[in-house]
Specification:
Layout lengths: L6 E12 L3 H9 L1 H7 L6 E7 L7 E8 L4 E12 L3 E10 L2 E15 L2 E13 L6 H21 L3
Antiparallel strand pairs: 1-7, 2-3, 3-4, 4-5, 5-6, 6-7
């Protein structure tokens, strides 16, 4: 079978207001135990590989199989971290061992009345048979932000 070689790009920005102080929202990303509590599909995923190294130049890896479904792999490198302000990563995604995309994502944290405004901006490049996956990525990212919101609501202090 010949794979048609093509490339597509997708950009999106998602913003959320979380009724939690900026340090709690930040810690949900910066603390490994907290991140594991909300990131990556919960009980819907059979986890296979995990690495967490939150520092500039550090890498995160999250690989798992969705029950009765594909194996996904996320590998990120932190390129910029400014505490309580921003996180910038480049990351690659694989589906069943096939490289599907490369993205740059900026995560911005702003203290506002009543909590934190969080903004996720992403620029993705999708390869070959995954060329039309930009909207799926945006939906997946929105799902992660919903999981973060639910996690923060459970952790009210």
């Amino acid at each position: 079978m010949t794979i048609e070689r093509r490339i597509a790009r997708a950009d999106f920005t998602l913003s959320r207001h979380y009724p939690a102080p900026i340090d709690r929202v930040w810690d949900a990303f910066a603390d490994e135990q907290q991140k594991q509590s909300w990131w990556g599909g919960g009980d819907a995923v059979e986890h296979r590989d995990w690495m967490f190294d939150f520092r500039v130049g550090g890498r995160d890896i999250d690989e798992g199989r969705f029950h009765d479904g594909p194996v996904t792999r996320y590998e990120a490198t932190y390129t910029d971290i400014v505490e309580h302000s921003r996180i910038v990563t480049t990351y690659d995604m694989w589906l069943d061992g096939v490289h599907m995309s490369t993205s740059i994502a900026s995560l911005e944290f702003d203290a506002v009345d009543g909590g934190t405004r969080f903004t996720h901006t992403e620029h993705g490049v999708f390869f070959d048979q995954f060329w039309a996956d930009g909207s799926n990525r945006e939906q997946g990212s929105a799902g992660l932000l919903e999981a973060l919101g639910a996690y923060l609501a459970r952790r009210k202090e």
